[in-house]
Write a structure and sequence with these properties.
- This protein is an alpha/beta fold.
- The protein has 4 helices and 6 strands.
- The chain folds into 2 domains: about 30 residues; about 110 residues, OB fold (Dihydrolipoamide Acetyltransferase, E2P) (Beta Barrel), CATH 2.40.50.
- It has a 5-stranded mixed beta barrel.
- It is globular and about 75 Å long.
């Protein structure tokens, strides 16, 4: 291979490498790169986080026909309906944690979860304008 072809080949290789890295490197964020928010911080700045993966500290209330996230009082703030990704997409150990949630009529837990916020009509009878889709349960402490 002559010198001009080596230079062209080298430039092409570097460009391909950079494109592949930019496509795949940004989607595989490590857990440390994910923003950690309280529920109030998420709701106060929801336009910044819609569609982005965040680590969320919240209260998860669930039962007969409800499953939502809120702040510690669950009063005076917008609640977000909870969805959970398909089992094959859950982080390791989350499936086991979800099975231990409890099946009483009314349940509440202090949680740290990874997931994404979305806007639209969600939940029971479309009563929730926000939805938080959980992909990982990092911490779960039963309140009742």
């Amino acid at each position: 291979m002559n010198e001009p072809n080596k230079i062209i080949f080298s430039i092409a290789f570097v460009m391909i490498f950079m494109c592949v890295h930019s496509l795949y490197g940004q989607t595989n964020k490590s857990a440390a790169d994910i923003s950690t928010l309280t529920y109030n911080e998420l709701i106060e700045n929801k336009s910044l986080y819609v569609g982005k993966t965040v680590r969320l500290k919240a209260i998860w209330t669930y039962g007969f026909e409800w499953t939502y996230l809120c702040n510690s009082e669950c009063k005076g703030t917008q609640m977000a309906w909870v969805e959970v990704v398909d089992e094959s997409k859950l982080c390791k150990g989350t499936g086991r944690k979800l099975k231990k949630l409890g099946t009483k009529f009314d349940n509440r837990a202090d949680v740290v979860v990874l997931g994404k916020l979305e806007e639209g009509m969600n939940g029971h009878m479309g009563a929730y304008p926000l939805r938080f889709t959980i992909s990982c349960v990092e911490k779960y402490k039963k309140i009742y």
